[in-house]
Request: fold
Amino acid sequence: MPHPGNPVTRSLTRVLADVRAQDHPGRVADYIPELSRADPEAFAISAASVSGHTYAAGDSTTLFTIQSISKAFVYALVLSEHGADAVTARVGVEPSGEAFNAVSFDDRGRPHNPLVNAGAIVTTSLVPGASAEERFARIRRGLSAFAGRDLDCDETVAASESATGDRNRALAMLARSSGALTEPVDDVVEAYFRQCALRVDTTDIAVMGATLAGDGINPRTGERVVPPAVARDTLSVMASCGMYDRSGQWLFEVGMPAKSGVGGGIVAVAPGEYGIGVFSPPLDAVGNSARGVATLRTLSQEFGLHLFRHPERPASPVQAIDVEPGGTVVIRLRGMLDFVAAEQVAHLTAYGPETTADATTRVVLDVSAVTASTRVAARLLADVAAELRLQGRDIVLVDPDGVIDIA
Ligand code: DON
Reply:
C-alpha cells in the first residue's frame, strides 16, 4: 500500500517534479494507431522493495499497455519451462546494438537476444500452447503471477497492433526460415500482440521487477514465480539488451537491468533491493520513454543504485578478539557472514598476532552474534578451522543458533 506521508514517497514525488521541470523531448508512439491516444502528460513512478513495501508518486494508478516490458518476463517463463540451454539454442543473449524492430539474427540464424522483437517472437513461440489463445492464457497467468494480481488485455490495442503488425509477421517468417521458430507464425504473433497489450500500472511493473530483484519470489504474494537462476539470467539479459540501441549508454549512466516498452513504461531493477516502474508516454529517438530514462538516471545517481558502484560494506565481521589466560583466543563475529567477511576472518587467523602467537593453543570462534552465513562463507570458515587444527591448535565453535556448519 502506498504511504503518502512517507519520506520515500516524498523523494519519489520530488524526483518526478524535478524531471517534469526539465526538457526531455519525446513523441508518443503512433506506429500502433491506438497507442497515439495516450496522455503525453501522464507521469508516474512506483518502487517495490523485495520485502514487499511499495511506494508511488504521480499517476501511478493510470493503466497503460506493457508492450516490450513483457518480453523480459515471458523470457523468464520460458527459461523456467525449458531451461537455459534449450532456450539459448533458439535465441541468443548478445546485445544487437540495433533498433527494437530490426532484422536481428546471428550467424546461426538465432535472433540476437530475447528483447528485440525477433527474439521476443521466438520466445513467445516457446510458451507451450496449441493455439494463440492457449499460449496467451499461459502468458497472462505467468505475468499476473509476476505482478501479484490478475492482468487483463487491452483488446483494442491488441487489434490495432495486429492490423498494423506486418513487420512482426515478417520477422516471425524469417525466424521460421532459419529454424529458430517452429510454431505457426500467426498463432505466435497473435499471442505476442496480446502479450504486449496487457494492461499494467507502474506499481504492477515495480512488483514484477521486485520479483526478479528478490530471486524470483513475488514480494506482494510470497509466491515463488521463477527459480533464482532464472531471475538471474533474465536480469543479465535486461542489463545487456533491455534498452535496445541505448543499452550500453544505459548501463554506463544508470547501471540497472531494465526493460522499456513503447507504451511509455520502463521497469528497472536494483538486484536484491527494489523493482522500479516509471511511466511517461513520449518516447525518445530509440523508443524509450524520454522522461522515464531521465527519472531513472536521477534515481540511480541520487540513491546509489548503479550496479557497479563500490558496495558499501557493514563494519568488520570481527566484533572483538579477547586473549584469555591459558593460551585461549576468543574471536567474536557478528552480522551476516558472506565470502568477503569470512575472508577477513581467514586472513586474521592466518596472519593475526593473537592467533599466530606461539602461546595460543586454543581458538574459540564465537558466532552467537552472526545472523546468517552464506554457504561459501561457511566453507571458508571450515577451512580456517582445519588449518588451525593442522597447526595443533584446538578450535571451538560457539554457535548456539546453528547459523554455520563447520564440522
Ligand atoms: O512489437 C511491437 O511493435 C510492440 N508491441 C512492442 C514494441 C515495444 O514496446 C518496443 N519498445 N520500446
Observations:
- The CA atoms of residues 69 and 261 lie 5 Å apart.
- The pocket of 6-diazenyl-5-OXO-L-norleucine is lined by residues 67-68, 100, 117, 161, 168, 196, 260-262, 287 (CB under 6 Å).
- The longest strand covers residues 362-373.
- The chain has a mean pLDDT of 94.
